[in-house]
């Protein structure tokens, strides 16, 4: 996709501070980092989101993910790391080429504050079981 900024980084028509590359994936520094060491990992093949990835493409990404995380851990000694991936604009995706954010964490005031706003009431277990069964059926199809 010629209009995709990440595809342009893959093809080399715009610069990117690459930290890892193989035949399937590329990792590079985020140009608007949330914290020091913020890295993005993408497939070289344009896929808009997680729903479009093949199992092989996902496998190629997650083979590299621990390497990236451990390199960040060794280099920056963060107290934690968030692995973030958004699908669709409602979920916060702004570049529509699948990518994972590796965000090293340093303290509570480091610029990234993910939080879950849990519902006040929990789902009853029979509802949770029904939802789980429906998902299982989809996975067997």
List the helices and strands and how they pair.
Layout lengths: L4 H7 L6 E4 L3 E5 L9 E5 L11 H22 L3 E5 L15 E6 L19 H16 L1
Strand content: 15-25%
Span between termini = 31 Å
Name the helicity range: 25-40%
Return Rg in Å.
Answer: 17 Å
Quickly name the level 1 CATH class: Alpha Beta
When the domains are counted, the total is 1
Q: Architecture in CATH?
A: 2-Layer Sandwich
- How would a crystallographer describe the biggest sheet? 5 strands, antiparallel
Element-level helix/strand string: HEEEHEEH
Q: Averaging pLDDT over every residue, what do you get?
A: 93
Which residues sit in consecutive blocks of at least 5 with pLDDT less than 50? none
Quaternary structure = single chain
Form type: globular
* Order of adjacent strands in the largest pleated sheet: 1-2-3-5-4
- Give the helix/strand class: alpha+beta
Total helix count? Answer: 3
CATH homologous group name: HIT-like
Number of separate strands: 5
Question: What is the CATH third-level topology name?
Answer: HIT family, subunit A
Protein name: Histidine triad (HIT) family protein
GO biological process, one term: nucleotide metabolic process
Motif (Histidine triad motif): 97-101
InterPro entries: HINT (IPR039384), Histidine_triad_CS (IPR019808), Histidine_triad_HIT (IPR001310), HIT-like (IPR011146), HIT-like_sf (IPR036265)
């Amino acid at each position: 996709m010629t209009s995709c900024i990440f595809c342009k980084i893959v093809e080399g028509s715009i610069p990117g501070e690459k930290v890892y590359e193989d035949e399937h994936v590329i990792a590079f520094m985020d140009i608007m980092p949330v914290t020091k060491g913020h890295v993005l990992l993408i497939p070289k093949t344009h896929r808009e989101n997680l729903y479009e990835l093949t199992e092989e493409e996902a496998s190629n990404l997650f083979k590299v993910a621990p390497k990236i995380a451990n390199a960040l851990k060794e280099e920056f000694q963060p107290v934690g790391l968030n692995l973030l991936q958004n699908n669709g604009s409602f979920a916060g995706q702004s570049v529509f080429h699948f990518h994972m954010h590796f965000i090293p964490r340093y303290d509570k005031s480091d610029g990234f504050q993910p939080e879950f706003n849990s519902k006040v009431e929990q789902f009853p277990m029979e509802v949770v079981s029904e939802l789980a069964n429906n998902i299982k059926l989809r996975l067997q199809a």
